[in-house]
């Protein structure tokens, strides 16, 4: 395994471990969605993360968070929607 991949894996593991500890202390669902979105964006930089919640019947999907759009041209378009 090359050094870059190895350090990225360790860093991702550390981020996941830290966020797991935070998840165990969460008081409401919106905090869970936020932790997941922010954590994924730390692991996958230069990305746009969209977190959705799906009903038990899998008929409705509700967007709970969009992360890291502020520097993105799409942010302006979504703000206007």
What is shown here, in short?
The chain is of the alpha+beta class and 81 residues long.
Strand content: 15-25%
Give the overall pLDDT as a whole number: 76
How helix-rich are the residues, as a percent range? 40-55%
Whole-number tally of structural domains: 1
Shape: globular
Structure characterization notes:
The protein has one domain. Helix content is 54%, strand content 16%. The protein has three helices and two strands. Strands 1-2 form a two-stranded antiparallel sheet. The longest helix has 21 residues, at 3-23. The model is unreliable at 1-6 (pLDDT under 50).
Could you name the key traits of this structure?
globular, two-stranded antiparallel sheet, 81 residues, alpha+beta
Task: Set down the secondary structure blueprint.
Layout lengths: L2 H21 L5 H15 L5 E6 L6 E7 L5 H8 L1
Antiparallel strand pairs: 1-2
């Amino acid at each position: 395994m090359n050094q870059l991949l190895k350090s990225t894996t360790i860093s991702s593991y550390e981020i996941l471990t830290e966020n797991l500890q935070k998840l165990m202390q969460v008081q409401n669902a919106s905090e869970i969605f936020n932790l997941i979105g922010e954590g994924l964006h730390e692991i996958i930089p230069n990305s746009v993360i969209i977190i959705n919640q799906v009903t038990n019947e899998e008929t409705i999907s509700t967007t709970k968070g969009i992360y890291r759009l502020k520097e993105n041209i799409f942010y302006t378009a979504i703000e206007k929607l």
